[in-house]
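Running this now, will post back.
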Amino acid sequence: MSKLKIGVIGTGYMGAIHARALSRMPEAELVGVYDADAGKSEEIARRYGTKAFASAEELMRQVNAVVVATPTNTHQDVCIKALEGGLHVMVEKPLAHDLESAELIVAKAKEKGLILAVGYVERFNPGLVAASEYIENPMYIEAMRLAPYNPRGTDVDVITDLMVHDIDIVLRYIAEEPERITCIGVPVLTEEIDIANARLEFPSGRIASLTASRVSMQKMRKIRFFQENTYISVNLLEREVEMVIKRGDTILPYFPDVDNSIEPIYAEDRDFLLSVLEGRPPEVPGEAALATTRLAYILLEDATRRLSRAKS
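Update: finished.
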């Protein structure tokens, strides 16, 4: 199989992880990296044996695909330029800083007939991968995603920063649009919403309850699935799965094997590369990410409206 010429635009925290993964991938030729901070891109280029480019445009002219890991408010500009240049794109979540921008990116990828993948890395979490074969028609999903305060990422609210991961997972396993939503959120340490709880009710009767916080004293990333004859608890942080299964009159605990050799970012990037090389959709295509983004902004709007009413 031929190698895909690829570059990384944005070499901050996430961009550096992508560069590391791609530098080790047999299907990838990491042509170079670019960052607005030249010193940072040069450091990452040295570390992973590639070239630091003076501009994103110069890098784009040398590759067939890019990973975009720039600040969220630049995603539209960078992704549109790449797609206009005929490049396949993997962009970090959230897809864009607002819904209109997200729609424009997805429409451009469709217009050009190019692969657009979005970085919902929890899809590749070894715990969720191990549990996925047992998840079937869940009636109730409960997710808790808690993190201590960290200034990185606080340019956006906790719904579009953290809760989107769980929205993506819910929509992956409940293939419906919710017919009723409620969301409450509170700014605590920033001007944006720092903690939020959402309830999603679907036409089939299924329900999801999501909580996300970036002002917790402890870290927690758990998601639980309740379905007929089976309870599944996935600890995404510890990469563990606990299940209770009913078979006839017998109720048994079950602990599926988890392949902890899986590196989620590596698996995510490789899925993107293979989708380009094999001409198949990626695990998280732009359309799926757009559905997640659209729902995230509906939740944010509801939370903002409730917060405004509470303050008045």
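The longest strand covers residues 220-227. More later if anyone needs it.
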